[in-house]
Prior knowledge:
With 296 residues, the chain is of the alpha+beta class. The chain has helices at residues 67-76, 137-148, 166-171, 175-207, 214-226, 233-255, 279-286, and strands at residues 3-5, 16-17, 20-22, 28-32, 38-42, 78-79, 82-83, 89-90, 99-106, 115-123, 127-129, 263-265, 271-273. A three-stranded mixed sheet has the order 1-10-9, with no helix packed on it. It has a two-stranded antiparallel ribbon with strand order 2-6. Strand 9 (99-106) and strand 10 (115-123) form a beta hairpin. Helix 4 (175-207) packs across helix 6 (233-255), helix 5 (214-226) packs antiparallel against helix 6 and helix 6 packs across helix 7. The longest helix is centred in the middle third of the chain and has 33 residues, at 175-207. The radius of gyration is 28 Å and the shape is extended. The termini are far apart.
Amino acid sequence: xxxxxxxxxxxxxxxxxxxxxxxxxxxxxxxxxxxxxxxxxxxxxxxxxxxxxxxxxxxxxxxxxxxxxxxxxxxxxxxxxxxxxxxxxxxxxxxxxxxxxxxxxxxxxxxxxxxxxxxxxxxxxxxxxxxxxxxxxxxxxxxxxxxxxxxxxxxxxxxxxxxxxxxxxxxxxxxxxxxxxxxxxxxxxxxxxxxxxxxxxxxxxxxxxxxxxxxxxxxxxxxxxxxxxxxxxxxxxxxxxxxxxxxxxxxxxxxxxxxxxxxxxxxxxxxxxxxxxxxxxxxxxxxxxxxxxxxx
Length: 296
């Protein structure tokens, strides 16, 4: 009976999430000296000093091969799972791990089918990277994609494990069909969320004759989300505003210095140059907010 593992949770105990910290962890420590008095240290400002064998300086969990480098990584980063003194898998609120809860299921005992084991992980909500951004399942998947990538050249051998779909992923066989199915499903879900946002905004427009600010619109959308009518409209509206702002800023940056680049034909066929005198005019024209009148 062939043994397979589902890709969604392969050996995550060996993965290390770079620069993670628990937001509830104290930043202070203390030690006692020979006189019996206690000295307090601030972990944010007091350097950590330790002796070590010579390091190569490759403090990257994906590519470190030196034992000294790996020791530094283990002291500065936390993994999905750990082990207790008996060697058993350990996780949970009181463990220095990313995982809050863990389980696995196997179809062992079912005849005439390949043996498959599925691993389930619940991540802690308060795990932060050193820059303050929260850790999500996407970061876990990044680890997997790095270790399992066909061009990965580090020391990990996770790619040698018999994972469902791994061979196709690393060789590219059947990958296009899988990608097409993923993109199709993504398109369906994205379209549904866009339609929900458009419908919710239309309802708000119908309910209010006065002009509303973006904050007011978000408040109305949030109430619709909390009522269960439209699940994601509030967060999608915020994302829409963010993307729109980013697009405008990019377009305005591209418009800088372009005012004199535009030329137009008048009604008689003559060429008019230097119609725009400022970058703002060029930007508004490129966005379709102003137009050139040939009769002028």
